[in-house]
Specification:
The structure is a homodimer of 298-residue chains.
Chain A: H1 2-13, E1 21-23, E2 30-33, E3 37-46, H2 47-50, H3 57-74, E4 78-88, H4 90-93, H5 96-109, E5 113-121, E6 126-134, E7 149-152, H6 158-167, H7 178-182, H8 188-194, E8 200-203, H9 208-219, E9 222-226, H10 233-236, H11 241-250, E10 257-261, E11 267-273, E12 277-281, E13 287-289
Parallel strand pairs in A: 4-5, 9-12
Antiparallel strand pairs in A: 1-2, 2-3, 3-6, 4-6, 7-10, 7-11, 8-10, 9-11, 12-13
Helix pairs in contact in A: 3-5, 3-8
Chain lengths: 298, 298
Amino acid sequence: MREFELIGKAKELFRVERDDVIVGIDDDCALVDVGTRLALTTDCLHEKTDFPKGIKPEEIGHLALAINLSDLASCGAKPLFFLYTITLSDYWIEYFERILKGMKNLADKYGVAVVGGDTDFGDELHISGFAIGKAERFVGRDGAKVGDKICVTGLLGKAQLSLEQLMNGFSRYEIAYPDSLFKPEPRVEEGLRIAKHANSMTDISDSLAISLHQIAKRSGVGIKIYEEKIPLDHLTKFVDYEKALELFLYSGGDYELVFTSKKSEYIEIGEVIEDEGVWIVRRDGRVKEVEFRGYAHL
Amino acid sequence: MREFELIGKAKELFRVERDDVIVGIDDDCALVDVGTRLALTTDCLHEKTDFPKGIKPEEIGHLALAINLSDLASCGAKPLFFLYTITLSDYWIEYFERILKGMKNLADKYGVAVVGGDTDFGDELHISGFAIGKAERFVGRDGAKVGDKICVTGLLGKAQLSLEQLMNGFSRYEIAYPDSLFKPEPRVEEGLRIAKHANSMTDISDSLAISLHQIAKRSGVGIKIYEEKIPLDHLTKFVDYEKALELFLYSGGDYELVFTSKKSEYIEIGEVIEDEGVWIVRRDGRVKEVEFRGYAHL
């Protein structure tokens, strides 16, 4: 995937050796030391690729903050401050305040102060967010240990299922999980709780498959998950079994957390193994590779 | 100006009362206290409004960082960390590394660690930057005192003059001040130096006029500048006198700093007065109002 190639080049270029940079450009968040340890992250959204049809202005503001809070949560950082840049196209100018109100509602919920913004105008609505959190115990992608359980904080595939329903002509009031698609909840409290014991963690923005590959590769371990442990009832109500499994493994947008720990919490789906790669044990016992792919964009 | 109306609404909405937020969304940078006092800022650029024709990829990366370092400098903060989001259109994908190299060269010059990035794809090249600095003595726009001198760190109008020449068919090798337009230098060291004594400061991104109005309004004072003190030789070589004065007062993009202080340093052009408003004393003694306007975008 082209995105990951480019990210690799950026990591190469911006590698630093500094006492105050503990984790650089290589994880969900950077970790810096300014006397206190701070987690820093940034993420952007733009209209054509990230906003499903029918999204409300408040949900756009919510989403712009939520994806950044999700990154902080995935490192076990408590969110403190947020800044944004917004480029408004003509259509969105009148919705500017409503976008910001959605952002503020979510900020208030988690005690985040929005302390900076840059506003300009262009052809497409574009929002970048930048969040700062305090990391008592920073959990990266690179600490998974052989024998750890693999757990996820919630059900996966709901956002993509809903998106596909929307693209097939359903309205936002008819799709299965509108909140997963339009207003995903960042797992802030879960992240803080999990950080006390997890060895590695990341959020699932692109897909579970990609997140597992990232943990496995960065930790120098392998991962095995079990089909029989994967909850799919929330999807098989709407699609057939194979499609449901596909959605669970390879779709993004739910912003749940996946982590590895000696302690099993939330939904346990597998374990960390010594042999490299990411594998799924099918119900019939066959072991198949989990591919490095996902789709989170429209 | 529409931009300032919207910014006003954002300031209203995101006003906070928190011990750890010393300056909120209301200045060039926010100032937060996490044990250490940090200045936070964000600024974005996109192709159609911010990149002059013929700009090199390295200069785009330079510019994205420079405008954020300029904000930090204008508060007297020492830059530490930088994060970016970049949306690449098809045309720019092959220049991705060159864009980042321009960013890195400037980062290295001022000891800035680039610790985060988000890369995606869209119809227009778009870069948002977020910078974090350490503020020993934070200088905002609101501290100007009656009797302060008004000073600027360098000659103004060069970027806009060069832009107009470019739009009139000159090549980048023929325009008067290519570096002012394509590769402006953020006044990082000047900002740190000035912060030791200045009562107020801001950078000149939109125009000197707008910056002076912001300082006057936020400080509850007036400002008087003197035409005879304004250096225009660098412009009158290329345009007539009135046009030169117009460029000096009302054009942006040079990223010089303007500050008020009991101490005169760099180029002194006027003083802080009690009566509200921003005024220019013309050579013939007439006093005219400096309008609230500027142009920094293409």
